């Protein structure tokens, strides 16, 4: 079984898990690569001009309106239950705000057609990886690659069998940016050892 553990990631993991949750059918959003590889209109940790720690809620709403997707988005607020507050656009984009503030805390999105090989070609090997189990009655296995220098967690496709097999063609399913995720943050990551079997 996986022995990796991620503690204190907060908004990042919440963003990734929110994106992976089942949601009602919504219009498909054209996320593309979200600028992650292309840098258009901006690159990590910027998404469509939204930067954790810099962009305010009113600016987020304006950006979503200009992109013509605001009507596909809805707000959520679970702060009174110890959760987070933000905006969710279908199953492809979620933007979280700092508690009691209108400042963006993190951005999570589901890009189209990005593979591990492309990520490594652009940003090099990850600083570490997280291996986890999701599910209650049926277990599935996931891998998340950490890129602290661009404030990013890159979640890969879920697999049904253990151990997790990482290949160059393994798809990226979600990417999350958070301003607090930097080289000074310490997590209990597994070591990256290239393609193949994990652990």
Task: Break the fold down into its secondary structure elements and pairings.
Blueprint: H1 11-20, H2 57-66, E1 73-77, E2 85-89, E3 93-97, E4 104-109, H3 116-123, E5 128-134, E6 140-147, E7 152-156, E8 164-166, E9 172-178, E10 196-198
In words, what does this structure look like?
This protein is of the alpha+beta class. The chain has one domain (11-20, 31-184). The protein has helices spanning 11-20, 57-66, 116-123, and strands spanning 73-77, 85-89, 93-97, 104-109, 128-134, 140-147, 152-156, 164-166, 172-178, 196-198. It has an eight-stranded antiparallel sheet, covered by helices on one side. The chain has a two-stranded antiparallel sheet with strand order 8-10.
Q: Which value, in Å, is the CA radius of gyration?
A: 16 Å
So how many helices?
A: 3
Provide the low-confidence segments as ranges.
1-10, 20-26
Task: Note the gap between the termini.
Answer: 9 Å
Structural class: alpha+beta
The strand order across the widest sheet is 1-2-3-4-9-7-6-5
SSE string, helices as H and strands as E? HHEEEEHEEEEEE
Largest sheet features: 8 strands, antiparallel
Proportion of strand residues: 25-35%
Number of domains: 1
Shape: globular
**Share of helical residues:** 10-25%
What is the β-strand count? Answer: 10
Overall residue-averaged pLDDT value: 85
How would you describe this structure in keywords?
single chain; 199 residues; alpha+beta; eight-stranded antiparallel sheet; globular
């Amino acid at each position: 079984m996986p022995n990796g553990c991620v503690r204190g990631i907060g908004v990042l993991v919440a963003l990734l898990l929110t994106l992976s949750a089942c949601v009602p059918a919504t219009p498909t959003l054209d996320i593309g690569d979200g600028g992650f590889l292309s840098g258009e209109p901006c690159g990590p940790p910027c998404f469509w001009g939204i930067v954790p720690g810099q962009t305010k809620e009113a600016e987020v709403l304006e950006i979503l309106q200009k992109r013509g997707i605001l009507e596909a988005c809805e707000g959520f607020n679970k702060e009174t239950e110890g959760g987070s507050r933000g905006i969710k656009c279908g199953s492809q984009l979620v933007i979280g705000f700092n508690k009691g503030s209108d400042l963006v805390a993190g951005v999570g999105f589901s890009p189209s057609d990005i593979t591990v090989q492309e990520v490594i070609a652009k940003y090099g090997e990850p600083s570490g990886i997280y291996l986890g189990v999701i599910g209650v009655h049926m277990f599935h296995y996931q891998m998340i690659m950490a890129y602290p220098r661009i404030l990013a967690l890159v979640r890969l496709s879920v697999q049904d069998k253990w151990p997790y097999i990482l290949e160059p063609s393994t798809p990226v399913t979600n990417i999350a940016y958070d301003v607090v995720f930097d080289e000074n943050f310490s997590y209990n990551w597994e070591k990256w050892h290239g393609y193949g079997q994990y652990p």
